Amino acid sequence: MTRHNIPLGKILGIQIGLDYSWFVIFALLTWMLASSYYPDEFKHWSPLMYWMTGAATAIMLFVSVLLHELGHSVVALRYRIPVRSITLFLFGGVAQIGAEPPSAVAEFLIAIAGPLVSLALAAFFYAAQSPISGVEPLLGLAKYLAYINTALVLFNLMPGYPLDGGRVLRAVVWAITGNMSRSTLIAANVGRFFAFFLIFAGTWQIFSGNLGGGLWIALIGWFLDSAASAQIQQLALRGLLTGHRVSQAMSAHYAIIPEDLTLQQLVDELILDSGQRSFLVNRGDKTIGLITLHQIKEVPRREWATKRAAEVMLPFEQLTCTSPDAELWSALQKMDRNGVNQMPVVRAEHVVGMLSREDVITFLRTLQDFGTSTDTTTGR
């Protein structure tokens, strides 16, 4: 999880996290429910009951969102697609699925699973209202959750990527055209259309006097436009890198240090002078690990004079590596999936280079300077 997330534990091996922005929407939703919604629905409760029920409802809403995202994740896992994490944040929740689905059918089933879970929750809370009608706080909670889960289904099925409806649209277009990239581009552009519509509708609401509701609708539209635009940019990036190999972008010049070098020596003699951020650690002529600024910073400064590189490094067996003949786009995805900024490039168990995100960016600039006609075999 990133430093902006609070880890809550794991479900089915998936790390669940709470983004700090969640507390903003939790507070706002609790306030709205306690000061407006529940007083209008149940006029004789005490102020404490309004706030307690409002807070409980806000928490249960995000439990519903978590179950929605778990619906996507369970189906993805059935297709052996890794799910790195689920994060609850300002606009709801997002499951970080680590790879593209293998087929249009898989994409459709993964996309539709979340709305089906929300629909089942809406039906459950609707059916629960009759048995608990004598307990008003529980009745109020069930009524709101039945309503909001129905709203989640309808909103998420809007046919604009990255909403679930947009992913369903992508699956349908993919099945028709047989081209995943083209279907993604179509779904993302439809997503931008719906995002602009929401921004316009929200702005209209603001100027009509509904400041809070209009601002919220406009913010959702802005978020959708940002997500759809990012997907379009990713497609463009993939198009530029397709056909190119790791060997064309990697750096053949990489820093090697002996295993017995202390962290203090490493910082004083190499990092401060060269600005290098990662180092291969060798035992004789054999590479045994990698050490980065991240590992160094985790060691208390008072221990730098005695801690050796070999004690702090990430062992070679645990490193995320790639081959010089691997596709550059696949290597970049591998970096993203594993949360690393650089990878050793290995051939026949020997390191022949290092590939970093900066190397990929530099290679992209070269492609843009000279066009995309660079020889994909020799790199000339």
Helix content: 55-70%
* Secondary-structure element pattern, one letter each: EEHHEEHHHHHHEHEEHHEHEEH
Number of helices: 13
Share of β-strand residues: 15-25%
Shape: globular
Mean pLDDT: 86
Structure report:
The structure is a single chain. With 380 residues, the protein is of the alpha+beta class. The chain has 3 domains: 5-157, no CATH class; 180-241; 246-370, CBS-domain, CATH 3.10.580. It contains 13 helices and 10 strands. It has a 4-stranded mixed beta sheet. The protein has a 4-stranded mixed beta sheet with strand order 5-6-7-8. It has a two-stranded antiparallel sheet with strand order 9-10. The two termini are 40 Å apart. The model is unreliable at 373-380 (pLDDT under 50).
